[in-house]
Write a structure and sequence with these properties.
Blueprint: E1 21-25, H1 39-45, H2 56-71, E2 77-80, H3 86-97, E3 101-103, H4 111-116, E4 123-127, H5 132-141, E5 146-152, E6 156-159, E7 163-166, H6 167-181
Parallel strand pairs: 3-6
Antiparallel strand pairs: 1-4, 1-5, 2-4, 3-5, 6-7
Helix pairs in contact: 2-5
Length: 183
């Protein structure tokens, strides 16, 4: 629970502008046991195992960096990677903003851990390309890892060699999957 310092300075999860960069603030899921205790592990493998690990100093640094970026009007959107991991956070930002995403980063290690690991202290943000240098400096000041993921735009959710869905398919699944499952 927190208090909003300045109600005029806030950020929502939805992507806002075609051409914005999408960046991950915080460590990669593969640097920790990011798949342990995840929704993915339970849904796909039927396992509820592993412990959630949190580095409280990193969490504080990521949150402080993100709040400062919002305060400086540096970012257009922000969404944590807790429920479902990185791919789900980016997909939810697409759905909320009604704009697609084109991923361009190289997935190193296990694809499932990278995309669906729920490692703590990670926030997906979008920003104008001209703000990237300022965000890099801010992240360095707070000792927060930063990784470019791709760009906002189009009508598809695409993560190279892993996921390629139309925004319409995603919205349909998000809005009507429970209804369809219940017949």
């Amino acid at each position: 629970l927190g208090l909003i310092e300045d109600i005029d300075r806030h950020c929502t999860i939805g992507f806002k502008h075609e051409g914005d960069l999408v960046v991950l603030l915080g460590p990669d899921a593969r640097k920790t046991d990011g798949i342990g205790g995840s929704e993915y592990l339970e849904l796909i493998h039927g396992n509820v195992v592993g412990a959630v690990d949190i580095d409280l100093d990193m969490e504080k640094n990521v949150q402080t960096c993100c709040r400062e970026a919002v305060k400086q009007d540096m970012i257009s959107s922000a969404h944590d990677c807790s429920d479902g991991g990185l791919a789900v956070a980016v997909a939810e930002s697409c759905i909320a903003g009604g704009i697609g995403f084109k991923g361009k980063w190289k997935i190193a290690g296990r694809t499932d851990t990278e995309l669906f690991g729920e490692a703590q202290s990670r926030v997906v943000v979008s920003l104008k390309p001209g703000q990237l240098g300022a965000l890099r400096k801010l992240a360095a000041r707070y000792r927060v890892p930063l990784k470019e993921l791709g760009t906002v735009g189009g009508t598809r959710f695409n993560i190279k060699n892993s996921i390629d869905l139309s925004l319409n398919e995603m919205v349909d699944a998000w809005k009507y999957s429970l209804e369809k499952a219940m017949g």
